[in-house]
Amino acid sequence: MTKIILSGVTAYISTSIDYLIILMLIFYRTKSKKERITVFLGDLLGTTVLVTLALILAFVLHFIPADWILGLLGLIPIFMGLKLLTSDDDNTSTIVNQTLTTHRSLLLNVMIITIATCGADNIGIYVPFFVTLSISELLIVLLTFVVMLTIFCYFGYLLVKVPAIANLLEKYGRWITAAVYILLGIYIMLESGTFTKLFTLL
């Protein structure tokens, strides 16, 4: 169980390090406890949408009989990590500011921001991870995600008061995220026996 929890923590962190900066930008605009709770709920709703999509895709992929073939999905986070290392494109702050200035409710705005800024990363990481899990392991991981989301929301609020940490994450967050993506992809391929199968075919 400990291994599954740690895997869930790693998967969540890998898709949410950069999102801490976004949470900081959002919490900077909040003025009351009620608004901070709304931000949490919006984040939860947005993440739920993304996780649900990932679960549907993972369920479909479970019909592929050979585990080692599913392990090839580990190439997705590896590719995403390499792409992140070589890319300087970052328009998340623009997305946040533009979305928050609309006349929609804060709850809906945060949900949209979560989906828009995390969608591709979350689905790209969660689908290959979910297909390696049993039903009981998946339930543990989903519960771990809820706990981690709560921690990240609280930490994002604290970042508003400690800008030095926010600057550190903004400077090195991309590199940390890329490294975790690549390691997670390798883990998925190892757990599925993909490397072993490929070596026997060579």
Radius of gyration: 18 Å
User: What is the first-to-last residue Cα distance?
Assistant: 35 Å
Give the fraction of residues assigned to helices.
over 70%
Shape: globular
Structural class: mainly alpha
In total, the number of strands is 0
Largest sheet: none
Strand/helix succession: HHHHHHHHH
Name the features.
single chain, 202 residues, mainly alpha, 9 helices, 84% helix, globular
Helices and strands, with pairings:
Layout: H1 2-29, H2 33-61, H3 67-70, H4 75-86, H5 92-100, H6 106-130, H7 135-159, H8 163-191, H9 194-201
Q: Describe it for me?
A:
It is a single chain. The protein has helices at 2-29, 33-61, 67-70, 75-86, 92-100, 106-130, 135-159, 163-191, 194-201. It contains 9 helices and no strands. The chain has 202 residues and is an all-alpha fold. Helices cover 84% and strands 0% of the residues.
